[in-house]
Amino acid sequence: MAMTIGRVGAGPVRVKLPVVTAAVAFLVCFWQPVVTLGRDWWSDPNAGHGLLLFPVALYLAWKRGLVREPTPQRALGLSLLVLSVLLRYLGGLAAEPFTMRVSLIGAAMGLLVYLYGARQLVRWWLPTLLIILCVPLPAVVLANLALPLQLKASEWGAALLALRHVPVHLAGNVIQLPGRSLFVTEECSGLRSLTALVALGALVGGLWLRSAWSRVLLILLAIPVAMALNAIRVFLTGFLVFYADARFAEGFGHLTEGWVIFVVAFAVLGAIAFVLAGLERRLRRIPG
Fold first, then answer.
1. Which of 195, 201, 203 is nearest to 54 (CA)?
2. Which structural domain range is residue 257 located in?
3. Residues 265, 154: one domain?
4. Were both Cys, which of 46, 77, 78, 106 would link to 113 (CB 3.0–4.6 Å)?
5. Cα 77 to the center of its chain, rounded Å
6. Phi, then psi, of 171 in degrees rounded to 5
7. Are residue 112 and residue 44 in the same domain, yes or no?
8. How far is the C-alpha of 61 from the C-alpha of 55, rounded, in Å?
9. In a domain, 25, yes or no
10. What is the layout of strands, in order, in the sheet containing 174-177?
11. Residue 186 neighbours by CB under 8 Å, 6+ apart
């Protein structure tokens, strides 16, 4: 009887020990990317959508669950792990946060493939995509994207003001009004709303739509929607400054205006998803 009890008690320990060891090794290796990523989500406005999307991704992964019959792919999973650890090392030498964060995601994917096979990644494609979209782009990429968006928002906003018979002169990202100049800064480029809207487009498409083409189309359409509504925000700011009060260009009023525009952008994205879902249903009824 004593020998039987000993074997039953040792079994779970032998099963759990490799899992605990792997978890500890993962945290030791990737603790820095985890901490800096969470800090950026909290403090960087360009990465704030991660605070929403990451918990949603975890919830969706939990809802989908694990594959019923796992087929571990040891060689492939181990290869992904080795490459991710190497990338983590190189990223640490270069002090490049984006590379280290990519290595973090790669290592997590490698563990999944090692334990459950690539089918688990396919099952969790939406949570995986959302987590990838939570990783902020490198600063050099953001800087190169922000300037064209600033210029385009300034150009479109000035054109809308001219249509409303507001005297306006555009010089780069500066909109000159009578007695007042509006600077379309990097914060007003629409880059924050663009990255957040693309991520929300991926979420809405993954939940509401069924076809790959409609999901990709929804994400692509999020880009012009964000750009157009940001231009409308620039126009509204200039319009209110010219006809009402210069204080609309800054402070609480300007911030509120930005949030309202983003809510409208999300509603437009939802309407596009609704139309695409209806188109999907019609196409499924057409005999092949």
1. 203
2. 140-285
3. yes
4. 77
5. 25
6. -135, 95
7. yes
8. 10
9. yes
10. 169-171, 174-177, 180-183
11. 146, 147, 150
